[in-house]
Every structure is written in structure tokens, then in C-alpha cells.
Amino acid sequence: MRSKLFAVMLGGAATVAAAPSASAYPIDCAILLCLAGGFPASAECSAAKAEFIRRITPWPIEPPLQLWNCPMRSSGGISVPGIGADGLTDDVRRYRDGIEIYHVQMYYHKRGGDNEYITDNTVVGEYQANGDFRWIGASYQHGPAWLAEASGGTTYTRTIGGCDDDRPWHVGRSCPPSQTVTTNDHMGRLRGVFIRYQDHSGAYHVEGVRY
Predict the structure, then answer these.
(1) What's the whole-model pTM score?
(2) Which of the two residues, 147 and 17, has the higher pLDDT score?
(3) d(CA 99, CA 208)
(4) Which of 17, 49, 73, 151 is the most buried (most CB within 10 A)?
(5) How far is CA 37 from the centre of its chain?
(6) Which H/E stretch holds residue 106?
(7) Are strands 115-127 and 154-160 parallel, antiparallel or unpaired?
(8) Phi, psi angle pair for 156, to nearest 5°
């Protein structure tokens, strides 16, 4: 399926005879086909990527890929075999579910003397099994490392717990288990929408819109 999607996106000369170009499909079909190829340079995929980015640019913020607008069983959509009860193939579903999107509504880390204050108002977008899209509570500070990199932040790794502090050891003293914790941080205020997706080769691509 990946090679077929990619071939359709490139015009179909390789494995799909006389396949229409991405411009012949509804915009969400074009986004799917071009996303599978990492949005290669072409007029059709440039238009698809522009719409992809527009949807994550406030306001409003929309689901980046809206497969309910890409009918795969009709002549106006993509004609592919192996369609499930939800109208999608396993590969198409994998592309959709592989999209990671975070909306950092506000992140602010303020330090003053021995005190520090963190405001972390972040949500993550998820596609449900039935195809619906929803936002749920998340965290920039405890989010994936790629989120910090995409937003110009920093990732810190430290070990907490154990008996590596300065308190003297004594009989009966217990030590909590040590664990390694990785957190994200950002200097100053941060607001933005950041998205990561995979193409047919497994390579990751990241986009971000700050506001």
C-alpha cells in the first residue's frame, strides 16, 4: 500500500498505470498522498502542504488530515483494495494515527531566587478509532523530546531519588528508587502548534506554527 500511494502521488508511472495526479483528488486525498511521500516538490503537493499548515495555524485549529473528506469507495476519492469497515486501509490508518500534534496554549517557566513557577497549558490532538479527532490534556514539560526541538526549547535528563544527596547515612535509612527523568523547558513564553508525521519510508517530518 505504501508503494502504491507513493506511486499514485508521483503520477503512477511506476506501479499504477494511468493513475490521476494528486490534483485530481479532493484536498484531503491529496494531503494523504503527499504526506506519504514527505510532501515532495510539486505544485499539487505544495498546495496540499499549504492547506495542511493552514489547518494548524490559529485560529481556528483544525484536524490536519480530515479523511472523512476523502471517500475511498467513490469515484471522487482514492480507489484502493483492502478497505476496512471504517472506510480505511491499514496503511492509511497508520499514516493518520502516526500524526502527532501538540497545541502549546501557554508555557512559561519563571525562576526567582529559590522559587520557580511553571505554567504549562498544553493539549495533544488524537484521532479516535472511529475517525473522530479530539484534544486531550497533555504537557509540554513532560512531552516528547521532538516537541522541545521543534519549538526551540531544551531537553534535560536527570536522575532523581536514591541516596546520592548530602544527608549522612545511618542505620535504618531507606533510599527511594532512583529514576531517570527527561523534561522539556523553554526560555520565556511559548505558544504554538507543533506537528510530527512519518512518510512511507519511516522518516519523520516536523512542522510548527508559533503565535
Answers:
(1) 0.78
(2) 147
(3) 13
(4) 151
(5) 16
(6) strand 100-112
(7) unpaired
(8) -115, 140
